[in-house]
Amino acid sequence: MKIVIHAVLPIIFMLHEFEEIIFLKWWLNRDKEYMHNNFPKIGPKIYLQYSKFSTAGFVLAIAEEFILISLLTYIAIIIQSMYLWFTVFMGFSIHIVIHIIQFVLYRKYIPVIFTSILVLPYCVYGFLLYINNEAYEIKWIIICSIIGIISVMLNLKLIHHLGVKFSNWEIKETRIPEGNY
Fold it and tell me: Which residues of the chain have pLDDT under 70?
């Protein structure tokens, strides 16, 4: 059963990301005023950060995450390094918990909440599977969790940078010169 829990992590990740891909632009346009009015310090920053992405730029950033999670998941399975897998898993699981906290604070739909709730049982089950294993002491659970969340934060910084760069390039390359239509 453990191998199934391990192998489906990339699928669970993409299921979650599809909601964000599909609804992010719509949500940004719909909730711009709400964000700015109810969260004046962080709302404009969030809006500005995500409005810089084209859909293709955003999908490129998610594709990088998917490839990375898939590679690390299957490397962990092949070399039987469950610490590596658990580190990736905890980075993802903490990411899901953060989305749920964001939803509670935001008090309305955000384009990650349905799938966050949907994949939460998977995260809880995977976590319980590991904490019930005597080989996993609390210190390793904490270490894997810290490394996982730091890795997610660093990778998010990288993919946001690359996604925005790609979006800017895409806009520049697809712009129709005046008088040529």
Answer: 1, 134-135, 176-181
Give the whole-angstrom CA distance, residue 181 versus residue 28: 31
Q: How far apart are CA 119 and CA 113, in angstroms?
A: 10
Q: What is the predicted pLDDT for the residue at 174?
A: 78
Question: Is there a contact between 90 and 148 (Cβ–Cβ < 8 Å)?
Answer: yes
H/E stretch holding 73: helix 55-78
What is the DSSP secondary-structure string of 141-173? HHHHHHHHHHHHHHHHHHHHHHHHHHHHHHHHH
Amino acid code (one letter) for 114: F
Token pair listed for 129: 């599977």
> Using an 8 Å Cβ cutoff, are 165 and 64 in contact?
no
C-alpha span between 62 and 68 (Å, rounded) = 10
DSSP 112: T
Instruction: Give the C-alpha distances (Å, rounded to integers) separating 2 from 29, 83, 126, 165, 181.
Output: 42, 13, 9, 39, 58
pLDDT at residue 71, as a whole number: 97
- Cα end-to-end distance, the chain, whole Å: 59
Q: What is the pTM for the complete model shown?
A: 0.88
* Domain residue extents for the chain: 2-173
State residue 130's pLDDT score. 82
94 with 10: CB under 8 angstroms?
no
Burial call 105-124: b when 16+ CB within 10 Å, e when fewer: ebeeebbbbebbeebeebbe
